[in-house]
From TrEMBL:
Family note: Belongs to the VPS37 family.
Coiled coil: 75-102
Protein name: VPS37 C-terminal domain-containing protein
VPS37 C-terminal domain residues: 86-184
Gene3D superfamilies in alphabetical order: Helix hairpin bin
Entries under SUPFAM superfamilies matching the protein: Endosomal sorting complex assembly domain (SSF140111)
PROSITE patterns the record matches: VPS37_C
Top-level taxon in the UniProt lineage: Eukaryota
Alphabetically ordered keywords of this record: Coiled coil, Endosome, Protein transport, Transport
Compartments it resides in: Endosome
GO cellular-component term (any): ESCRT I complex
Length: 184
């Protein structure tokens, strides 16, 4: 007797028709025959192997869990520190830019012009104050200054004018592009 059932499940071919009918009626008998089938045995074996493999993986994961938590904490701390250092870097970069700004050629030239003007004003103020200081005596007539006062004035005035002219020369060289400002 050949049927699609017996063709597909050849393990049942040795059972009689009554046994097959009992198989459908008796759940215990069905379970016994069902669990004796090689397909089912292979399925349970595979299921058991997968379960044991999953348990091994779970045990391994549990063994690594604390280490992973520690690494996560270390990574977070390193990331936070990196963010902090990045913020500090930006602050330092801003400070550096401000400091370097004082040494750019344009800023240095501006300082040279201001100091040249200030030096000229200072020397002119010294000359004006010397000229306006007229010593007088009781009779109302002016007396000539002593030679020491004049010598001191001349020495100081010459020194201030020398500084002024040096600065003015550097300013002219700058204007004529004879000054090279190095960036290093």
């Amino acid at each position: 007797m050949s049927s699609p059932l017996l063709t597909e499940f050849s393990e049942l071919s040795h059972l009689s028709r009554e046994d097959l009918e009992d198989l459908l009626v008796d759940p215990v008998y069905f379970q016994t025959i069902f669990h004796s089938l090689s397909y089912v045995k292979d399925l349970y074996r595979s299921q058991s192997e997968l379960g044991m493999a999953n348990e091994a993986i779970a045990r391994n994961n549990l063994a690594l869990q604390q280490r992973l938590y520690d690494l996560r904490s270390e990574t977070k701390e390193a990331f936070d520190e990196a963010k902090s250092l990045e913020a500090r870097w930006k602050e330092l970069e801003k400070e550096q830019k401000e400091v370097y700004q004082r040494f750019t050629p344009q800023f240095l030239m501006m300082r040279l012009r201001h100091s040249t003007t200030a030096q000229d004003d200072a020397s002119e103020a010294l000359a004006s104050s010397f000229v306006q200081q007229v010593p007088s005596n009781d009779s109302g007539t002016g007396t000539p200054r002593s030679g020491g006062d004049i010598d001191e004035f001349i020495k100081e005035f010459k020194e201030r004018r020398k500084v002024y002219h040096k600065r003015a020369m550097w300013g002219e060289k700058w204007a004529n592009k004879q000054v090279i400002w190095r960036d290093d």
